[in-house]
Every structure is written in structure tokens, then in C-alpha cells.
């Protein structure tokens, strides 16, 4: 499945553009994932010729040296200067625990953060290195992504939040072969 994912990514111009821009900016321990990857794969599996534009391009990075919100904004600004046509959202995963108070332990890497994203099929992230090698981070594997199964990742999402996300994302309307799992 990794080879198939890589082929899909390399055949998706907007995703390659995002990976190349992120590589140019090169924030610490960066990964691009979530909806940008899911959309590319599900569009491909559905045979769509018109790609589903991502609502945002999620760039996760990990920099414990600067937890300020301004740091994320500066990374986004650098990304926008490289690829202004993309809807960037850069988040320093080293600061995510601050959003939750004492309820959440600090993360140790961007890869660890990917494992906390809301649905297992979107817990997939990528990095493009200087030699054009693609790194794939998929803590739950690629099975749900390629089987087009939306399944709650209970690591940080409550059942109520998951249900709200299902209602707002409307996965099956866009990709009719998607299966939604109500079990967590």
C-alpha cells in the first residue's frame, strides 16, 4: 500500500506542490497530512478527474524551542510565500498540550501527533526530503485509508466530537464508496 500511496501522491500536483513548499520552508520535524492526503487517495480510488480541494493543507511541525502562536503564523507565512494558492494551516505540535491544560501530556514529535488525529484514515502524513524520497507516517497503517473507512480515533476525540465531525465533513456525499464506522 505504501507504493500505491506514493504513486497517488506523486500524481497529485497540489499535494506535490505542498510537499515541495514545505521542504523549502523546512520547519523542524514537519509532516503534511490529514485531509490533503485522504482527499488525494479517495479521489483516486473513486476515479475522480476533478480533485477535491482540501479545506486546508495541514502542516504539523514540532519545535519545543518556540511554543508561541506567532511561530506557527510565521511558518504559515513562509509557506504562503512559496505556495500562495494553497490553504495552509501550520501547527506546532509541541504546543498542542497547551490547548488542553493538564488534561493532555505534551507530545514528543510530529509523528506522535499524527496518532492523535480524529479519524484513523486521516492519521497519515508525509514528508518529502531533499532527495525527493517520500516518508510516510501512518501509526494505524494504511488499511482504513485504502478501504475508505472512516473510523474514530479515540486518542483525543470524544464520540460526540466524532459525530459532529461526521456531520460537518459529509464524507459519503463526496465519496459514495466510503464506509462510516459508528463503533469506536
Offer a few descriptive terms.
184 residues, alpha/beta, 5-stranded mixed β-sheet, two-stranded parallel sheet, 7 strands
Strand content: 5-15%
The helix content is 40-55%
Helices, by number, come to 9
For the termini, the CA-CA separation is 24 Å
Task: List the strand order in the largest sheet.
Answer: 3-2-1-4-5
Output the radius of gyration: 16 Å
Runs in which pLDDT lies below 50 for 5 or more consecutive residues are none
General form: globular
Number of domains: 1
Rounded average pLDDT:
94
User: Structural class, judged by helices and strands?
Assistant: alpha/beta
- H/E topology pattern: HHEHEHEHHEEHEHHE
Q: Tell me about the biggest sheet?
A: 5 strands, mixed
Counted beta strands: 7
Show the helix and strand layout.
Elements lengths: L1 H9 L2 H13 L5 E3 L1 H12 L10 E5 L7 H14 L5 E5 L4 H4 L9 H5 L10 E4 L5 E4 L5 H5 L1 E2 L8 H11 L1 H4 L4 E2 L4
Helix pairs in contact: 2-4
General description of the model:
Helix 2 (about 15-25) crosses helix 4. It is built from 9 helices and 7 strands; from the N terminus they run H-H-E-H-E-H-E-H-H-E-E-H-E-H-H-E. It has about 180 residues and is an alpha/beta fold. It has helices at about 1-10, 15-25, 35-45, 70-80, 95-100, 110-115, 145, 160-170, 170-175, and strands spanning about 30-35, 55-60, 90, 125-130, 135, 150, 180. The chain has one domain (about 1-180). The strands form 2 sheets. Strands 3-2-1-4-5 form a 5-stranded mixed β-sheet. It has a two-stranded parallel ribbon with strand order 6-7.
Amino acid at each position: 500500500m505504501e507504493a500505491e500511496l506514493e504513486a497517488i501522491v506523486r500524481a497529485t500536483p497540489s499535494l506535490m506542490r505542498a510537499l515541495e513548499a514545505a521542504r523549502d520552508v523546512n520547519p523542524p520535524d514537519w509532516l503534511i497530512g490529514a485531509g490533503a492526503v485522504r482527499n488525494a487517495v479517495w479521489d483516486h480510488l473513486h476515479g475522480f478527474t476533478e480533485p477535491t480541494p482540501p479545506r486546508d493543507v495541514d502542516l504539523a511541525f514540532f519545535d519545543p524551542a518556540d511554543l508561541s502562536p506567532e511561530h506557527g503564523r510565521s511558518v504559515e507565512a513562509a509557506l504562503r510565500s512559496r505556495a500562495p494558492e494553497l490553504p495552509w494551516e501550520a501547527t506546532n505540535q509541541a504546543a498542542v498540550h497547551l490547548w488542553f491544560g493538564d488534561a493532555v501530556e505534551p507530545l514528543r514529535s510530529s509523528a506522535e501527533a499524527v496518532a492523535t488525529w480524529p479519524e484513523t484514515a486521516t492519521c497519515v502524513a508525509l514528508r518529502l526530503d531533499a532527495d525527493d524520497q517520500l516518508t510516510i507516517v501512518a501509526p494505524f497503517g494504511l488499511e482504513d485509508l485504502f478501504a475508505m473507512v472512516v473510523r474514530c480515533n479515540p486518542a483525543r476525540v470524544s464520540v460526540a466530537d466524532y459525530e459532529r465531525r461526521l456531520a460537518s465533513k459529509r464524507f459519503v456525499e463526496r465519496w459514495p464508496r466510503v464506509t462510516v464506522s459508528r463503533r469506536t
